[in-house]
Amino acid sequence: MKKKYSAYMAALYGMLIALAFVLSFVETLIPVSLGIPGIKLGLANLVTVVGLYTIGISGTVVISLLRIVLVGLTFGNLFSMLYSLGGWGLSLLLMVLCRKKNWFGTSGISILGGVGHNIGQICVAAFVVRQAGVFFYLPMLLLAGTGAGLVIGILGSMIISRISSFIKKLQ
């Protein structure tokens, strides 16, 4: 039974990495133009939320970092990786803290992830361009992060319940 569980977890990690990569690619194909740079749907955050509840923190960190590097090398550049890492770091920190403390449900944690990602990215942008004026975009980014986080949280909750029941059957 242990071999079956280990094989399942290896397959799950591989599928989550592939899914995060594909969702990041799909996101590049969907134009979201609200006049505010940096607004995205946050589709790959679905994998992060699901990972936190199914494979734990360390696995989620590995999957997320691999996604950022792979997507940056494939569809972006060094700056896009830098912005993504800034957003990812704060986002993951907030989600992990709230998950460990059981402060919020899946949707609340996902919303915090979206908002944290936007704050992290805007801080990196302010540092890179050395202009505080980029914070002008923050209210709209927070609104977009909240909306996207809510949708991702609802979808994540549905996926988590299915994966969790499957894992219980394997153990």
Helix/strand order, N-terminal first: HHHHHH
Per CATH, the architecture is Orthogonal Bundle
Structure annotation, total helices? 6
Which sheet architecture does the biggest sheet show? none
- The name CATH uses for the topology is Arp2/3 complex 21 kDa subunit ARPC3
CATH class: Mainly Alpha
Distance between termini? 7 Å
**Count of DSSP E strands?**
0
Radius of gyration over all CA atoms, rounded = 16 Å
How many domain units? Answer: 1
Name the assembly state: single chain
Summarize the structure.
With 171 residues, this protein is mostly helical. The chain has six helices and no strands.
Descriptive overview:
The structure is a single chain. The protein has 171 residues and is mainly α. The protein has a single domain, classed as Arp2/3 complex 21 kDa subunit ARPC3 (Orthogonal Bundle). 81% of the residues lie in helices and 0% in strands. Helix 2 (45-54) packs across helix 6 (138-170). The longest helix is centred in the last third of the chain and has 33 residues, at 138-170. The mean pLDDT is 87.
Key terms:
Arp2/3 complex 21 kDa subunit ARPC3; mainly alpha; globular; single chain; 6 helices; 171 residues
